[in-house]
Amino acid sequence: KDSIDLAVIGGDGIGPEVVAEGLKVLEAVSAAKVNRTEYDLGARRWHETGETLPDSVLEELRGHDAILLGAIGDPSVPSGVLERQLLLRIRFELDHYVNLRPAKLYPGVITPLAVDRVAPEGIDLVVVREGTEGPYTGNGGALRVGTPAELATEVSVNTRFGAERVVRDAFARAQARERKHLTLLHKHNVLSYAGHLWRRTVEEVGQEFPEVETAYAHIDAATIYLVQEPSRFDVIVTDNLFGDIVTDLAAAVTGGIGLAASGNINPDRTAPSMFEPVHGSAPDIAGQGKADPTATILSVAMLLDHLGRGDEARRIEAAVAGDLSDRRNAVRSTSQIGDAIAARLS
Ligand code: IPM
Ligand code: MN
């Protein structure tokens, strides 16, 4: 196919600004014609109409090859409304069970792991975060709210089906990488039921991938390893909530969330996948041209990869790598960074 039907959701805060730069780079690299449809979703729409994600829009989204999203969330909307009814609803409805979050330390990027030099061994890992289960399903409840006897539960849902499909995907990704190493992160010493399910699933699915070496770490210990010895990780697989937390840390040690890309992937291709920077809407700097669009630009590379356009994805990554190695402490606006990366493509 020689065109890409792209749904674009700029969203809230800095979302539209960073998405504009992602699209700039996509146009600069793509040999295919990009047909974009912009969807006005997020805080503004909610305030004006009370809508978060109308069913008709969800159905339209299904008709695209991929979705590019900026960020969702605004302090003027009660916490959780847009997150749950818009962002998580898309991930669940389009069955984005692989939330793919690479963390790579590019040459020249300053990491907080070392004061005035980059980390000695380098970091090049990818987190396969489960995207449709865990405590994100909204199972839970509260009793006697506002009283001293208040009780709240958040139930983490873990199905064999859900764990197995994401674990198999993670093994396949590990198999395709040089090190062929997969680490399960969980907390089976406390969360025994789910921990047992995940551990057994890794053991059993692992039989299909004899070349892949597996390891296990408790999630708390993993935060130490990520800071002190990040090179021990290659591919990480974990549940939705642990994956959320650990990918912020992985982003922080590889140059910050301004650089962290992600893909909400439906590996079975029964619906379009959605690509978005790991960062949020950063309302405090919205509209000022201060946001770093690099995470969105790298998410565009992931999008192209998913659409079988690996050559174009590699070209974006190379352009970003070039820009990163030259940027040091230069202060540039959102669009200046986008322009600079796009210029490296021509
Ligand atoms: C992320 C975000 C979301 C998540 C929020 C906004 C619902 O933190 O994409 O990492 O928790 O998945
Ligand atoms: Mn997060």
TrEMBL record:
One term of GO molecular function: 3-isopropylmalate dehydrogenase activity
Chemical reaction(s) catalysed: (2R,3S)-3-isopropylmalate + NAD(+) = 4-methyl-2-oxopentanoate + CO2 + NADH
Function field: Catalyzes the oxidation of 3-carboxy-2-hydroxy-4-methylpentanoate (3-isopropylmalate) to 3-carboxy-4-methyl-2-oxopentanoate. The product decarboxylates to 4-methyl-2 oxopentanoate.
Positions that bind substrate: R91, R101, R129, D220
UniProt GO BP: L-leucine biosynthetic process
PROSITE patterns per the UniProt record, alphabetical: IDH_IMDH
Entry's cofactor comment: Binds 1 Mg(2+) or Mn(2+) ion per subunit.
Organism of this sequence: Luteipulveratus halotolerans
Protein's UniProt keywords contain Metal-binding: yes
Keywords: Amino-acid biosynthesis, Branched-chain amino acid biosynthesis, Cytoplasm, Leucine biosynthesis, Magnesium, Manganese, Metal-binding, NAD, Oxidoreductase
A single cellular component GO annotation: cytoplasm
EC number: 1.1.1.85
Cofactor: Mg(2+); Mn(2+)
Pathway info: Amino-acid biosynthesis; L-leucine biosynthesis; L-leucine from 3-methyl-2-oxobutanoate: step 3/4
Keyword RNA-binding belongs to the record: no
Binding-site residues, NAD(+): G280, S281, A282, P283, D284, I285, A286, G287, Q288, G289, K290, A291, D292
Protein name according to UniProt: 3-isopropylmalate dehydrogenase
InterPro entries for the chain: ICDH/IPMDH (IPR050501), IsoCit/isopropylmalate_DH_CS (IPR019818), IsoPropMal-DH-like_dom (IPR024084), LeuB_actb (IPR023698)
Family (UniProt): Belongs to the isocitrate and isopropylmalate dehydrogenases family. LeuB type 2 subfamily.
PANTHER family for the chain: D-MALATE DEHYDROGENASE [DECARBOXYLATING] (PTHR43275:SF1)
Stretches assigned to the Isopropylmalate dehydrogenase-like domain: 5-341
Major subcellular site: cytoplasm
Binding site for Mg(2+): D220, D244, D248
